[in-house]
Amino acid sequence: MPDHPVFSAKEKLMSTDEIIDIATTFVKLGVKKIRLTGGEPLVRQDAREIIERLSLLRSEGLNEITLTTNGVFLHDYIEDFKKAGIRSLNVSLDTMMPDRFAKITKREHFHRVMSNIHLLMEHGFHVKVNMVVMNGVNDDEIFDFINWTRDFPVHVRFIEFMPFRDNHWKDQKLITTKELLDRAQSHFEVVPLQNNKHDTSRKFKVLGYEGTFAFISTMSEPFCGDCNRLRLTADGKMKNCLFSKGEMDLLAALRRGESILDLIHASLASKEKQWGGQELFGKTENRTMVSIGG
Fold first, then answer.
1. Which of 137, 155, 221, 255 could staple 217 via S-S, CB 3.0–4.6 A?
2. Model confidence at 203: pLDDT above 80
3. Which DSSP state fits 80?
4. Domains of the chain, residue spans
């Protein structure tokens, strides 16, 4: 979390109906999967309604709904997820140490998050744990996270530290996927797993372990050429890349009663070859990650 996060006024954010209207347009254009992210999607009072109404888009061709969450409120939504057909969720967890968790997140919710992750697994959900690896911050826990997969069907994803406004990024804090994999292979009997088209991660498993782990190599080994993800921020801006400076204001057009189709196509046509057209090891222009939604 940034030290001093700035939150948007409610009237600048998409309403429930606006979220469904824009989502419906994307589904009719061929989008098969929708992920609700954040900040934290479950802090919205209308989260249940959004999830329920998105599930109705299956009749329009939507195949999958999922969430990325900080895990704090999951225990209140288990039955809602099941009813909506959600079977897989991503939970952000950068450390297994309560004190370190409080320092990173600015919140004292470690034990609840861990309890909720295991609750999801008990109910048969596929749980992906997103762990952003930062040199000198939490890289000493890599083996602990992999050991977690020994007895539980959890899928741990080690994510390279990426630069965003106010996240104190320095290249000295970056540990590359190669370095991480080398560490894992020095300690465990690791085998690669089959990756699917458009996957942003490379999956592995320790022989005999229940769960799996993966690496997301955004910085050291970009996968931009095969990435088909689009983002819609909470205030209705379309980003054709996580790192793009430019944003297409779909919400303003929708509120004026205009079609958003041309804006969507224009955003897609302007997609850069890599990293949103920015040099991530130089000076980047972007929002904070919490305001983009991740």
1. 221
2. yes
3. H
4. 10-292
Nearest to 105 by CA among 214, 222, 1, 250: 1
Give the tokens for residue 280.
């991530």
Name the fold adopted by 10-292: TIM Barrel (3.20.20)
Across the chain, mean pLDDT equals 92
Q: How many CB atoms lie within 10 A of CB 68?
A: 18
Is 161 within 8 Å of 173 (Cβ atoms)? yes
Distance CA 10, CA 30 (A): 30
Strand 237-239 with 248-249, pairing: antiparallel
Contacts of residues 186-189 at CB distance under 8 Å and 24 or more positions apart, as own/partner, are 187/143, 187/146, 188/146
Could you give the angle at the alpha carbon of 168 between the alpha carbons of 164 and 174, nearest 5°?
85
Q: What is the DSSP string of 167-197?
A: S---GGG---HHHHHHHHHHHS-EEE-PPPT
- Token output for 43: 């802090």
